[in-house]
Amino acid sequence: MKVVATSRTEQGSGASRRLRRAGQVPGIVYGGNSQAAAIAIEHNPLWHALQKEKFHSSILDLEIDGKAEKAVLRDYQMHPYKQQILHMDFQRVDPNQKVHMPVPLHYSGHLESPAVKLYAGQVTFVANQVEVECLPADLPEFIAVDCSTLDITKRSIHVTDLQLPAGVSIPNHGQDDLSLVTVKIKNAAAKAGGDE
């Protein structure tokens, strides 16, 4: 996805307010071998881009004053009650260095799983994204999670159960194998004696 920006020299809260009144969003791009750069982006196209899942988890083509570079969205601030973006933070990426990015999880198959169809199980999705580590070119738009295997004896899906694309890994950060999906089955012990 492409983001068109212009560099800005005026900084501070007064300059930011003037930018917002003019329909622009102040932002910053940092990282890489270059200095942090203050930028301004047109609000409305940026607002529509933020509504797309892909914008939050993909390598963006950030064009500043006609010069393109690769970057990822790192943070943004919204107005407390208006539909207004207050500030954007982007980080430059090096195509040869791995990035850590949150990637959305797309669940499917739970309604067809034995846990739901045969035992009227109640499925709970514990996470809607997972952090991955990979080179920018390998960054997936999303990770598919097949829940059709949920059953009386298999009542959860963990991070280690994910089928990851080539070149993509999930950093551990010292955590246990986190559950992504769980299913609760009433009287499951009486029906099959399965454990969670």
What is this structure's SSE topology?
Elements: E1 2-7, H1 13-21, E2 24-30, E3 37-42, H2 43-50, H3 53-56, E4 60-64, E5 67-78, E6 85-92, E7 99-108, H4 114-117, E8 122-125, E9 129-134, E10 143-146, E11 156-158, E12 179-184, H5 188-191
Parallel strand pairs: 1-4, 2-6, 7-10
Antiparallel strand pairs: 1-3, 2-3, 4-5, 5-6, 7-9, 8-12, 11-12
Word description of this protein:
This protein is mainly beta. The protein has helices at 13-21, 43-50, 53-56, 114-117, 188-191, and strands at 2-7, 24-30, 37-42, 60-64, 67-78, 85-92, 99-108, 122-125, 129-134, 143-146, 156-158, 179-184. Strands 1-3-2-6-5-4 form a 6-stranded mixed beta barrel. Strands 9-7-10 form a 3-stranded mixed β-sheet, with no helix packed on it. A 3-stranded antiparallel β-sheet has the order 8-12-11, with no helix packed on it. It is elongated. The two termini are 42 Å apart. 21% of the residues are buried. The mean pLDDT is 88.
Portion of residues in beta strands equals: 35-45%
Radius of gyration of CA atoms, rounded to a whole number: 21 Å
Q: Averaging pLDDT over every residue, what do you get?
A: 88
Shape descriptor: elongated
Low-confidence runs (pLDDT<50, min 5 residues)?
Answer: none
Sheet with the most strands: spatial strand order: 1-3-2-6-5-4
Number of strands: 12
Structural class: mainly beta
Main sheet summary: 6 strands, mixed, barrel
**Helical fraction:** 10-25%
The CA-CA distance between the termini, in Å, is: 42 Å
Helix run count: 5
Query: What order do the SSEs take from the amino end to the carboxyl end, as H and E?
Result: EHEEHHEEEEHEEEEEH
